[in-house]
Amino acid sequence: MEIFSQNKIYDFMGKRKLFLSISLFFIFSSIALLFTKGLNWGIDFKGGTIVQVKFEKKAPIPKIRGILSKKFDGVVVTKFGDESEVIIKFPVKEKNSVQKDMGDVVSQLLAPLGKFEVRRVDIVGAKVGGELTEKGIKALTFAIIGILIYVAFRFEWSFAVASVLALVHDITISIGFVSLFSVDVNLDVLAALLTILGYSLNDTIVVFDRIREEIIKSKERSLEKLINISVSKTLSRTTLTSLTTFFVVLTLFLFGGEIIKPFSFTLLVGVIVGTYSSIFIASPLLIWLGFKIDDFRKNLAEKEKRRREKEKLREQFEQGVL
Prior knowledge:
By secondary structure, the chain is α+β, with helices and mostly antiparallel strands. The protein contains eleven helices and six strands. The strands form two sheets. The chain has a four-stranded antiparallel β-sheet with strand order 3-4-2-5. It has a two-stranded parallel sheet with strand order 1-6. Strand 3 and strand 4 form a beta hairpin. Helix 5 packs parallel to helix 7, helix 6 packs across helix 10 and helix 7 packs parallel to helix 9. The longest helix is centred in the last third of the chain and has 33 residues. It is elongated, with a radius of gyration of 26 Å. The termini are far apart.
């Protein structure tokens, strides 16, 4: 199935400065959000206790907040799903004395407000939260380093650096949207970010593979034209893959429930940004990094020459000539 004709070549590189300007706007906006608004760290990383409560009627959030704030400092009460359900977050503080029986404590304190049930109690210590934060950062760092090594080995350093810069572009903008919409940053969001790395890299590698094929089989010496040809030929595949993934993740976001929303929202943004970067950002980076077609073809010719020499020596060894 083709959405875009492979015979038509689109001039993506002619508008690369426009796309770069758009990306820079979102990147700097995301960085500004991180420094001003910051991230809404969840209990997984910050430590504390989460209590999920469901009332028979509409939850009286102001009254809940008023009762609990008298006994606990820094308590946060937010709606969870429909109007009858709330999430209560207790940060880790010594004078709060957050214990494992917080469900019972909440039940006693909120008893005058009507009938309700405590549906979930999650507890994460401050030390565990700190360890999870450290390991989460390491996971993202090692993933990016591994990708850099893999792409450099499979292609060459220009492709590797371009792919990693595109991934940093995707992760930065995704985190910016997480900050903008105050999404709880928990282990699910970290899993979504790692998923975005793999998804975006896959799209980028497909485009880079096509560029390499065009360089090998074509005599064209203009990198811009080769990139336009390669991206145009992979456009239908990229669009179909992205749309399929987008609608699946959108379904999770709309109908998967509140628990999975931080994951699905982050992944939803990542799919859009990753698709955009694989088409409009990753390939132009090759031009800005100074990739030379002639040098690439020369290196390929030398590798092929060495391969043939090794093959010839092996044949001579097997025939007893050496």
